[in-house]
Each structure stands twice: as structure tokens, then as C-alpha cells.
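Per-residue structure
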Amino acid sequence: MREVKYRKVESGVSANQALMLALPKGRILRELTPLMGRAGIEPEPAFADEGARQLRFATNDPGLEIIRVRSFDVATFVAFGAAHLGVAGRDVLMEFDYPEIYAPVDLGVGRCRLVVAEPRDLVASDDPARWSHIRVATKYPAITRAHFAARGVQAECIKLSGAMELAPGLGLCRRIVDLVSTGATLAANDLVEVETIAEVSARLIVNRAALKTRSGEVGRWIERFREAADAA
């Protein structure tokens, strides 16, 4: 078996140190793992343990390290330069809309859609074209307000971090905006999709300043990820 040597992780980030790649925990990361392999990235063994408390990992490439964070935090780490590259869903990029981020590659993983949903018994008597003001539970208030404002609807957003499907049944609101993959969770809570706001997939994102100051290194990883996505 080939022996892989991992670069020792040091604290702090500077222009002379390894590039930092921020990756999201959860489903996207599981789908991303084969693509990372095609791009030539082999993290240290502890990375495969989702229950590990370690958040920063060495790789087989001495010029690249990985941090594993919450999906919503990936964009923030990259935008503020704590990480040079990352993988984030289109939903996260739309919600924060950081000008410091460049998203050059659609990786084709983590596919889902951002939708408006409401109780099944409301659908027959409801006409979205007549909405003027709605109350919505969501963890995407910026996207939600912009979507409805574009058609002249005022959206009152109640920010929730999860369990959105409970909100209509408990009287918190009548509609939700959330990510949907199979639709099984909506159906289990007697909710129905009534609008699609955006199709979502994971993107490779890059800090624009890092792309300028370390263009050779960053550009090399952009091409590796692009080739790995194309080979899927």
C-alpha cells in the first residue's frame, strides 16, 4: 500500500502557507468525496469521521489543507479570506451575495431546489398571483424577500434554522421557503410545493483577492475541480 505523507497543520494562515479549502458538513460532503478523489485530494484519515471534533485537516498535497464547517459558514470563511477556496450551495451564495466570492465551477453535486410550500388543504383555494402580503418561515430571508419583491409581494420572514415544515401546522405561518430534494419531508408534513425559486447545486468558490495574489496555485485547483466535475 502506498504510504501517504500528510503535511503537519500549523495555526494561522498567511500568503506563504498552504491554501485553505472550506468544505460543508453533511450530505454535500458525502457526495463531494468521490469528486475530491478525482481532483487528487486525499485528506488525512480523521476527515472521514463525521463525529470527530477535529475541524482542520491535512491532505496528501502539502500545498492544501481542509477545514470542515457548517454549510452556511463556508461562504463567510471564503469571503473574509480565512479560506482561499470552498464548496458552497447556490442557495448559500444567493443568500449572502458576497462580492468577494467568485464561483467558477458548478460541481454538479448536492442537487435540490429552493421552493415555496404550503399546506395541502390550502392549495385548492389559493392563488399565488393574488398574493400581496405573506408571512413565511425560512432560513433564507434575503432570497425570499427579493423573490417576492420582484413581483410586488411583501414577504414577512420568520427566521428559522430548521424544522421549517412544522411552522404551518403550529400556526406560525401559512407558507415556508426551504430546500427540497425528494419532497418526502414536505409530503410527510402534508405540505405541497407551489413555486420553485431556484435550482440549487454545489459550486466551487474562490476568494477573489486570493485568485489575484496566488493565481497560479488557485487557478490550478479550479482546473482540477473543473476536470473532476466534467468526468463525473
